[in-house]
Amino acid sequence: MALMKVKFDLKKRVKLAQFLWLMYWFSVMAGVLVFSMGLFFKIELRKRSEMMDNNESHFVPNLLIGVGLLACGINAMGGKICYDSLDPSKFSRWKPMLKPFLVSCVGFNCLLVLTALLCFLMRIPLQFTLSEGLKNALKFYKDTDTPGHCYMKRTLDQMQMEFRCCGNNNFRDWFEIQWVSNRYLDFSAKEVKDRIGSNVDGKYLMDAVPFSCCNPSSPRPCIQYQVTNNTAHYSYDHYTEDLNIWKRGCRDALISYYGGMMNTIGALVLLVTVLEVVVMIGLQYVNTSLSNLANPEDPESESEGWILEKTVKETFTDIMAKMKAMSKGNAVEEGAVEGVATES
């Protein structure tokens, strides 16, 4: 028994084909949108690649770009099929291709679901690549004269101001590295000697942060030096909420930014998947209703259309039986080849 059988006359078939033609072109635009979002995400990753581990993956944005282009091609072809279905003579040339086309649509919808799932899960690997990347980037902040790292200071300062963050995990990360270049230190000064001498690695460490960590909304002038020394500043307690530098770490800020972007893209891909399933089902109705015309020579005759020729269970059983037959056939062929090789 056919699944979800519907009776069609000429008027219903024409309306369905026209509606699907319009929906397919909406799907083409949706494919363009997916492509654009993938390209935008790839550019955003490239913009901050210096602050990411070298192992960051562009697989998901590349997949979005590929899926977007594929959606444009498949939906443009589906729109053409629906347009030609209004003329039985034109539609006849599409009949041999329709079954493989619908099968490819099922595969494409599975790819869309997988793409959406990867978008939602990308937050996990992004946490690791940002954690390592930012940790290394902070160490290069002072290397303004070193080729390959000379723009790291500007990049980090712009990021901290844009995302209102400080350090990797928090502002204390700056206390653990030397972020002032040696060329700007007076090594004859007692303070500099004491700081370098008190550190086993011979680095100039201090409880201070770059200017880009300062919160411009704070009414108090920025306290970026001796951040944890309450006695160095009047009416100051670094344990209170009055600390006028950003408390949020840049890793959390970037993960939130990219995670929100990927959740939006993932939701968009799921919506595109729903649209693709709708137009695929509609095309199946067009295909079966035209193939089952009571009088093929009379386009105005009534016909029946369905989603599946049999029930879901029967269809699944048939597919499994065909797969088993194919595997047995391959096993027989392999055995025959081995037998011939043994005889020779």
From TrEMBL:
> Per its UniProt record, what InterPro entries does this chain match?
Peripherin/rom-1, Peripherin_LEL, Tetraspanin/Peripherin, Tetraspanin_EC2_sf
The record's keywords, sorted A to Z, are: Cell adhesion, Disulfide bond, Membrane, Transmembrane, Transmembrane helix
Record-linked Pfam families: Tetraspanin (PF00335)
- Major localization listed first in the record, in broad terms: membrane
Membrane topology (UniProt): Multi-pass membrane protein
Quick one: a GO biological-process term for this protein?
Answer: visual perception
Family annotation (Gene3D superfamilies): Tetraspanin
**Residues of the signal peptide:** none
Can you quote a single GO CC term?
plasma membrane
Report TM segments.
20-41, 62-81, 101-121, 265-286
Q: Which compartment or compartments is the protein found in?
A: Membrane
What family does the entry list? Belongs to the PRPH2/ROM1 family.
| Protein name as annotated | Peripherin-2
Q: Which organism is it from?
A: Esox lucius
